[in-house]
Amino acid sequence: MKTAAIVALLVTGCSFVGVRGGPPVSEHGGCTGGYPLPVTDLVVTGLAAATATAIAIAGNACGAGRGPDAEFGGRCPSYDLSAAGTGIIALAWGVSALYGFTKVSSCSAAKQAERKREAARSDAWALTKTAAAAARVGDCNTVRKIDLDVSVLDSEFHATVFLADIGIKRCVGPAVTPSIDAAPPTRAPPPVAPVHP
Q: What is the pLDDT of residues 1-10, one digit of tens each?
């Protein structure tokens, strides 16, 4: 059982096992925001690649007739297999490192977007309190200005919270759109006095 776990870890890498990606943080309870696992994968990739290269160089020396397996047509199968196996491990850990760096980056972006949303919501709350106080004293000009600011900051909050306040709603009033069909009122031209020569 332990051997299977070690082999699985050798061919998967840390990031495949331990890194969680970054859809919106609040929906999935968090994601991996640090780089230790992808960096570990990158270090192991480098070590495995260096080891595979060293084994391949040693295999070439063996194949030149200076090693115990030289009778296999100028190649040393044990070195070739070792180099290939170590190369596969390097490739697997390299892919894991790439996966990890990508997921951590998306997590960081999701956390930054969440912080921006929270800051906008906090600002919208503060403006709503100011608008509610202005509405209570009948300062509808201030309320209408804040109405625009809150709708830009957080449109969902504007629709569900800001406009739910009765005083604010009274100041902002329902949106009125002019009718296209309505023609402006016309006046009859003033009567022209006849000219007598």
A: 566 556 665 6
